[in-house]
Amino acid sequence: MCARELHVISNGQSELERFARIASRIHPYVTAFHLREKSSTAKELWLAMLSFKAGGVPLSKVIINDRVDVAWAAGVGGIQLSHHSLDVEVIRRVFPGLRVGRSVHNVQEADEMYKQGADYLVYGHIFPTNSKPGQQPRGTKSLEELVKKVPIPVIAIGGIILENVHQIVATGAAGIAILSGITESDNPLKSAREYRRVLDR
Fold it and tell me: Of the listed 7, 84, 125, 166, which one is catalytic?
Protein backbone atom coordinates (compact mmCIF):
# COMPACT_ATOMS: atom_id res chain seq x y z
CA MET A 1 0.00 0.00 0.00
CA CYS A 2 1.18 3.51 -0.77
CA ALA A 3 1.96 5.76 2.18
CA ARG A 4 -1.19 7.26 3.65
CA GLU A 5 -1.66 10.92 2.88
CA LEU A 6 -1.33 13.72 5.42
CA HIS A 7 -2.95 16.96 4.28
CA VAL A 8 -2.49 20.17 6.27
CA ILE A 9 -5.06 22.91 5.72
CA SER A 10 -4.83 26.62 6.42
CA ASN A 11 -7.64 27.97 8.57
CA GLY A 12 -8.30 31.18 6.68
CA GLN A 13 -7.54 33.22 9.79
CA SER A 14 -3.78 33.04 10.34
CA GLU A 15 -1.23 34.89 8.24
CA LEU A 16 -0.29 33.05 5.08
CA GLU A 17 3.37 33.85 5.69
CA ARG A 18 3.15 32.07 9.03
CA PHE A 19 1.55 29.07 7.32
CA ALA A 20 4.38 29.10 4.78
CA ARG A 21 7.00 29.20 7.55
CA ILE A 22 5.41 26.20 9.24
CA ALA A 23 5.22 24.38 5.90
CA SER A 24 8.93 24.93 5.32
CA ARG A 25 9.68 23.00 8.53
CA ILE A 26 7.19 20.16 8.24
CA HIS A 27 6.91 19.45 4.50
CA PRO A 28 9.00 16.23 4.58
CA TYR A 29 6.19 14.62 6.62
CA VAL A 30 3.27 16.11 4.70
CA THR A 31 1.64 15.04 1.44
CA ALA A 32 -0.18 18.28 0.66
CA PHE A 33 -0.73 21.81 1.96
CA HIS A 34 -4.16 23.31 1.24
CA LEU A 35 -4.60 27.04 1.04
CA ARG A 36 -8.23 27.39 2.04
CA GLU A 37 -8.35 31.17 2.05
CA LYS A 38 -11.78 32.36 1.01
CA SER A 39 -11.05 36.02 1.72
CA SER A 40 -7.57 36.20 0.18
CA THR A 41 -7.06 37.92 -3.15
CA ALA A 42 -5.28 36.34 -6.10
CA LYS A 43 -2.28 38.58 -5.39
CA GLU A 44 -2.14 37.49 -1.75
CA LEU A 45 -2.24 33.83 -2.76
CA TRP A 46 0.47 34.45 -5.34
CA LEU A 47 2.72 36.07 -2.73
CA ALA A 48 2.09 33.10 -0.44
CA MET A 49 3.31 30.83 -3.23
CA LEU A 50 6.53 32.81 -3.39
CA SER A 51 6.93 32.32 0.37
CA PHE A 52 6.39 28.58 0.02
CA LYS A 53 8.95 28.39 -2.75
CA ALA A 54 11.48 30.50 -0.82
CA GLY A 55 11.03 28.18 2.16
CA GLY A 56 11.92 25.13 0.11
CA VAL A 57 8.42 23.66 0.02
CA PRO A 58 7.88 21.74 -3.24
CA LEU A 59 5.05 23.52 -5.05
CA SER A 60 3.88 20.08 -6.18
CA LYS A 61 2.68 19.67 -2.58
CA VAL A 62 0.58 22.84 -2.63
CA ILE A 63 -3.16 22.75 -3.30
CA ILE A 64 -5.19 25.92 -3.69
CA ASN A 65 -8.89 25.90 -2.90
CA ASP A 66 -11.18 27.07 -5.69
CA ARG A 67 -8.81 29.58 -7.33
CA VAL A 68 -7.77 27.61 -10.37
CA ASP A 69 -6.32 30.74 -11.99
CA VAL A 70 -3.75 31.13 -9.22
CA ALA A 71 -3.08 27.40 -9.06
CA TRP A 72 -2.33 27.24 -12.77
CA ALA A 73 -0.28 30.45 -12.85
CA ALA A 74 1.82 29.43 -9.84
CA GLY A 75 2.44 25.91 -11.08
CA VAL A 76 1.24 24.22 -7.89
CA GLY A 77 0.25 20.60 -7.62
CA GLY A 78 -3.50 20.81 -7.41
CA ILE A 79 -6.84 22.43 -6.90
CA GLN A 80 -9.48 21.66 -4.26
CA LEU A 81 -13.08 22.18 -5.33
CA SER A 82 -16.36 22.42 -3.43
CA HIS A 83 -20.04 22.63 -4.37
CA HIS A 84 -19.74 26.28 -5.46
CA SER A 85 -16.64 25.72 -7.62
CA LEU A 86 -16.37 24.95 -11.31
CA ASP A 87 -17.26 21.34 -12.14
CA VAL A 88 -14.53 18.74 -11.86
CA GLU A 89 -14.94 17.77 -15.51
CA VAL A 90 -14.35 21.40 -16.58
CA ILE A 91 -11.14 21.69 -14.57
CA ARG A 92 -9.97 18.30 -15.82
CA ARG A 93 -10.49 19.34 -19.43
CA VAL A 94 -9.08 22.87 -19.30
CA PHE A 95 -6.28 22.33 -16.77
CA PRO A 96 -5.10 18.76 -17.36
CA GLY A 97 -1.91 19.13 -15.33
CA LEU A 98 -3.58 19.77 -11.98
CA ARG A 99 -4.46 17.15 -9.38
CA VAL A 100 -8.16 17.73 -8.78
CA GLY A 101 -9.77 17.16 -5.39
CA ARG A 102 -13.42 17.60 -4.51
CA SER A 103 -15.10 17.96 -1.13
CA VAL A 104 -18.09 15.63 -0.83
CA HIS A 105 -20.73 14.91 1.80
CA ASN A 106 -22.38 11.63 0.78
CA VAL A 107 -21.87 8.51 -1.32
CA GLN A 108 -23.96 9.74 -4.25
CA GLU A 109 -21.94 12.95 -4.55
CA ALA A 110 -18.70 10.99 -4.24
CA ASP A 111 -19.69 8.63 -7.05
CA GLU A 112 -20.61 11.56 -9.30
CA MET A 113 -17.31 13.35 -8.65
CA TYR A 114 -15.40 10.15 -9.38
CA LYS A 115 -17.25 9.82 -12.69
CA GLN A 116 -16.40 13.45 -13.51
CA GLY A 117 -12.71 12.67 -13.10
CA ALA A 118 -11.73 13.78 -9.59
CA ASP A 119 -8.34 12.45 -8.50
CA TYR A 120 -9.31 12.28 -4.82
CA LEU A 121 -12.14 13.22 -2.46
CA VAL A 122 -12.22 14.98 0.91
CA TYR A 123 -15.03 13.71 3.15
CA GLY A 124 -16.22 14.86 6.56
CA HIS A 125 -16.58 15.98 9.15
CA ILE A 126 -15.92 12.60 10.72
CA PHE A 127 -15.70 13.50 14.41
CA PRO A 128 -17.13 16.43 16.39
CA THR A 129 -15.16 19.59 15.77
CA ASN A 130 -15.26 23.17 17.01
CA SER A 131 -15.23 24.40 13.41
CA LYS A 132 -18.67 22.81 12.87
CA PRO A 133 -20.54 23.63 16.09
CA GLY A 134 -23.92 21.99 16.43
CA GLN A 135 -23.48 19.85 13.30
CA GLN A 136 -23.70 16.09 13.59
CA PRO A 137 -20.47 14.33 12.58
CA ARG A 138 -20.74 11.75 9.81
CA GLY A 139 -18.71 9.13 11.63
CA THR A 140 -16.38 6.37 10.55
CA LYS A 141 -19.11 3.97 9.38
CA SER A 142 -20.24 6.36 6.64
CA LEU A 143 -16.61 7.01 5.77
CA GLU A 144 -16.01 3.30 5.32
CA GLU A 145 -19.10 2.96 3.10
CA LEU A 146 -17.89 5.80 0.91
CA VAL A 147 -14.35 4.39 0.69
CA LYS A 148 -15.76 1.08 -0.53
CA LYS A 149 -17.94 2.82 -3.12
CA VAL A 150 -15.33 4.85 -5.00
CA PRO A 151 -11.98 3.60 -6.38
CA ILE A 152 -10.10 6.86 -5.82
CA PRO A 153 -8.39 8.10 -2.63
CA VAL A 154 -10.64 9.44 0.12
CA ILE A 155 -9.18 11.89 2.63
CA ALA A 156 -11.01 12.16 5.94
CA ILE A 157 -11.42 15.52 7.65
CA GLY A 158 -12.93 16.92 10.82
CA GLY A 159 -12.10 16.42 14.48
CA ILE A 160 -9.17 14.13 13.77
CA ILE A 161 -6.67 13.90 16.61
CA LEU A 162 -3.77 11.54 17.22
CA GLU A 163 -5.93 9.30 19.40
CA ASN A 164 -8.52 8.59 16.70
CA VAL A 165 -6.33 8.33 13.60
CA HIS A 166 -6.39 4.52 13.93
CA GLN A 167 -10.17 4.60 13.46
CA ILE A 168 -9.70 6.42 10.15
CA VAL A 169 -7.01 4.00 9.02
CA ALA A 170 -9.31 1.06 9.79
CA THR A 171 -11.87 2.33 7.26
CA GLY A 172 -9.42 2.06 4.39
CA ALA A 173 -9.31 5.82 3.83
CA ALA A 174 -6.25 7.05 1.96
CA GLY A 175 -5.38 9.67 4.54
CA ILE A 176 -6.39 12.53 6.79
CA ALA A 177 -6.63 16.31 6.64
CA ILE A 178 -5.64 18.36 9.68
CA LEU A 179 -6.21 22.02 10.49
CA SER A 180 -5.39 23.31 13.95
CA GLY A 181 -3.91 20.03 15.19
CA ILE A 182 -0.64 20.90 13.48
CA THR A 183 -0.57 24.59 12.58
CA GLU A 184 -1.85 25.72 15.98
CA SER A 185 0.32 23.29 17.92
CA ASP A 186 3.04 24.61 20.22
CA ASN A 187 5.45 22.50 18.17
CA PRO A 188 4.15 22.00 14.60
CA LEU A 189 7.16 19.90 13.60
CA LYS A 190 6.66 17.48 16.47
CA SER A 191 2.93 17.27 15.74
CA ALA A 192 3.50 16.60 12.04
CA ARG A 193 5.97 13.84 12.90
CA GLU A 194 3.48 12.28 15.33
CA TYR A 195 0.64 12.31 12.81
CA ARG A 196 2.95 10.75 10.23
CA ARG A 197 4.03 8.10 12.71
CA VAL A 198 0.49 7.02 13.60
CA LEU A 199 -0.55 7.05 9.94
CA ASP A 200 2.30 4.77 8.98
CA ARG A 201 1.88 2.20 11.74
Answer: 125
